[in-house]
TrEMBL record:
Top-level taxon of the source organism: Bacteria
InterPro entries noted in UniProt: Methyltransf_12, SAM-dependent_MTases_sf
Pfam families in the cross-refs: Methyltransf_12 (PF08242)
Protein name: Methyltransferase
Organism: Rhodohalobacter sulfatireducens
Length: 192
């Protein structure tokens, strides 16, 4: 997708988080948390024009799977035109509806969930719905990786998962906080 087409999509869709695709530096930093030496199933919310999927597909094993959940129809069309790999599924859906999109045998068995969707744009109830759905689909010990423009996700993540670690990537427009969250089986904590 050209930079002009990406910008047009950004202008048309208020839920697109950034005016530019994620930088290679940020992609590498986020993906450094993925163990590419093992087979895995990874769900990505909001893959946009496919910056993360292209990187992940180059590194993941032949038996790994990549499930892309994208709400924007222009991006879905672009992904379907540019990614031709039997390890990939592309769904036009909202992240909060991920459980209904996955095969029932995958729920509770996902190794990684990666997300660049702008959680700061979501209302409190919707944010919690997406995070709870994410917890539901992850296996015990599975990891939620989110890259966001601020630290706004700390409290909601603590409420649902009860843990997080963050890193900061200044070499991106905009700069990103990277959240690394484990599904440790707890019900989270009440943070007031």
């Amino acid at each position: 997708m050209s930079k002009i087409d990406f910008l047009k999509t950004f202008i048309k869709d208020k839920d697109v988080a950034s005016v530019t695709p994620t930088s290679k530096h940020c992609v590498k930093k986020v993906c450094s948390n993925i163990d590419f030496s093992k087979d895995f199933t990874l769900v990505e919310y909001g893959p946009g024009d496919g910056v993360f999927p292209k990187y992940i597909l180059e590194k993941m094993s032949p038996n790994s799977r990549l499930i892309l959940i994208e709400a924007n129809e222009d991006f879905v069309e672009h992904l379907k035109e540019t990614i031709n790999d039997p390890r990939v599924e592309i769904h036009n859906a909202l992240a909060g509806n991920v459980e209904s999109v996955l095969n029932s045998e995958d729920v509770g068995k996902i190794d990684y969930v990666l997300s660049g969707i702008p959680f700061s744009f979501l209302k409190k109830d919707r944010k919690r719905e997406v995070l709870q759905a994410t917890k539901n689909i992850l296996k015990d010990g599975g990891m939620f990786l989110a890259y966001q423009t601020s630290g706004h996700l700390k409290k909601p993540v603590m409420d649902v998962f009860g843990n997080y670690d963050t890193d900061f990537v200044p070499l991106n427009i905009p700069p990103y906080f990277i959240y690394k969250v484990y599904n440790n089986g707890s019900n989270g904590v009440d943070v007031i």
